[in-house]
Amino acid sequence: MRMHGLRVTLQPPDGTPFVEDAILTLATGVNGGQLYSGNNGFWIEVVDAADGTHDVAGFGWQDGKRGHTIVETAPIIL
Question: What pTM value is reported for the model?
Answer without folding.
Answer: 0.90
